C-alpha cells in the first residue's frame, strides 16, 4: 500500500521507489532511498520528519527541481498515470508543472524576485501557462491577491517584495501557486519564520482554498499539530525513507514506529504538564554511508538482532503501514497485527 486517497480511480500523483542522489565532496549522499507514495483528488497528505529526512527533496523531485550535483537515480514519478521522467516525460512535465501542479516554497523572500514588481511575477505565470495578454494577466493577478486576503490589491501589484511583510509575501506565493487553478498544491513548510498568528491565517487560507478550488494538497511540515488538524493522511519520513503511513488520526492515536512515537513525545501538549520535553536520543544516520539494516536502529529503544536487516513498509493494520520489525503502540491503543521477523 502507498500513501493514497480514499477516492477511486487513478491517483493524481504517484511516486514509485524514487531514489535521489547528490554527488558531494564527502561522497554520494543518498537523499531519497526508495520513496513510494501517491495522492488522490481532494486529499491532503501531510509529510513529516526531522530536517534532512527527505521531505523537501521529494517535493523538489516532483517539481523537476533536482539539479546538479543531484540526480534522480531510479524510480518513477507519474502524473495521472503518465511518467514525468525521461525525454518524453520531461516535455509533458514542462506543460503541467506550474499549471496543474504548483508549489509554495519555504521562504517567500528568496523565492520572489526582489527586482520585479509583484504584478509582473504573478502575471508571467498567467501569460506563460494560460496565454493571457499583459492586461488580462494584470486583472487576474489583482483578483488573485484579493482572493488570498491582501488589501488594496491593485496598488500592491506595483510594489516590490521588500515592501511586504513575511505573511503577505507568503500570501503572494500562494496567489502565484493557484494562479492557473492547479489540481495539486505542494506546500513546503508554508509557515516557516512566521509568527503564530500569521501561521494560523496562512493555514486557514490553504484550507479555504482547498475547499473552494477542490485542490489536492501535499503539506510538508515539522508541526505535527498542523498535520493533525488539516491532513487526511500522513507519511512519516526518516533518513530518506517513509517509515510509517496511515490515516492522520490513526497514526496520531496509535503510532506504531518508535520514531513516530518519539516525534509525538517531543511535541508540547496542552493537556499535560511536564518539566521538560522528551527528545529522541542520538542523531540521524550519515546518508553517505547509511546503515545496512533499519536506519533508526542506533536510536531505537526496541532495537534488536532483527533490526540488522532493513524492514519493508508493511501492513500493521488494514489502513496503516510501518517499516519496523517490532511495531508497537501505547497500551491503551488497539493491538497491532503480529509482526513477521526475518
TrEMBL record:
InterPro entries: AAA+_ATPase, ABC_Ni/Peptide_Import, ABC_transporter-like_ATP-bd, ABC_transporter-like_CS, Oligopep_ABC_C, P-loop_NTPase. GO terms for molecular function: ATP binding; ATP hydrolysis activity. Residues 13-264 form the ABC transporter domain. PROSITE patterns: ABC_TRANSPORTER_1 (PS00211), ABC_TRANSPORTER_2 (PS50893). GO terms for cellular component: plasma membrane. It is a peripheral membrane protein. GO terms for biological process: peptide transport; transmembrane transport. Keywords: ATP-binding, Cell membrane, Membrane, Nucleotide-binding, Transport. This is Peptide/nickel transport system ATP-binding protein. It comes from Aminobacter aminovorans.
Amino acid at each position: 500500500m502507498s500513501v493514497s486517497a480514499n477516492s477511486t480511480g487513478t491517483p493524481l500523483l504517484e511516486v514509485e521507489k524514487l531514489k535521489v542522489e547528490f554527488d558531494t565532496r564527502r561522497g554520494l549522499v543518498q537523499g531519497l532511498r526508495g520513496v513510494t507514495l501517491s495522492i488522490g483528488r481532494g486529499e491532503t497528505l501531510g509529510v513529516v520528519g526531522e530536517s534532512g529526512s527527505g521531505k523537501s527533496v521529494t517535493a523538489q523531485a516532483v517539481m523537476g527541481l533536482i539539479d546538479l550535483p543531484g540526480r534522480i537515480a531510479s524510480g518513477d514519478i507519474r502524473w495521472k498515470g503518465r511518467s514525468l521522467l525521461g525525454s518524453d516525460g520531461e516535455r509533458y512535465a514542462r506543460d503541467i508543472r506550474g499549471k496543474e501542479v504548483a508549489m509554495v516554497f519555504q521562504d517567500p523572500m528568496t523565492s520572489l524576485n526582489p527586482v520585479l514588481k509583484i504584478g509582473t511575477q504573478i502575471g508571467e505565470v498567467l501569460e506563460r501557462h494560460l496565454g493571457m495578454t499583459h492586461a488580462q494577466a494584470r486583472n487576474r493577478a489583482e483578483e488573485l491577491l484579493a482572493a488570498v486576503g491582501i488589501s488594496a490589491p491593485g496598488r500592491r501589484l506595483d510594489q516590490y517584495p521588500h515592501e511586504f511583510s513575511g505573511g503577505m509575501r507568503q500570501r503572494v506565493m500562494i496567489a502565484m501557486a493557484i494562479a492557473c487553478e492547479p489540481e495539486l498544491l505542494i506546500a513546503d513548510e508554508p509557515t516557516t519564520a512566521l509568527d503564530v498568528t500569521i501561521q494560523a491565517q496562512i493555514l486557514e487560507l490553504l484550507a479555504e482554498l482547498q475547499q473552494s478550488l477542490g485542490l489536492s494538497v501535499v503539506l510538508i511540515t515539522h508541526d505535527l499539530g498542523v498535520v493533525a488538524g488539516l491532513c487526511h493522511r500522513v507519511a512519516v519520513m526518516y533518513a530518506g525513507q517513509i517509515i510509517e503511513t496511515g490515516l492522520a488520526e490513526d497514526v496520531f492515536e496509535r503510532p506504531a514506529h518508535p520514531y513516530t512515537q518519539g516525534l509525538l513525545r517531543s511535541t508540547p501538549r496542552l493537556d499535560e504538564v511536564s518539566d521538560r520535553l522528551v527528545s529522541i536520543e542520538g542523531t540521524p544516520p550519515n546518508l553517505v554511508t547509511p546503515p545496512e539494516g533499519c536506519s533508526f536502529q542506533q536510536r531505537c529503544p526496541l532495537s534488536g538482532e532483527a533490526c540488522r536487516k532493513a524492514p519493508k513498509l508493511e501492513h500493521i493494520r488494514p489502513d496503516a503501514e510501518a517499516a519496523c520489525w517490532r511495531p508497537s503502540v501505547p497500551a491503551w491503543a488497539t493491538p497491532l497485527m503480529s509482526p513477521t521477523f526475518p
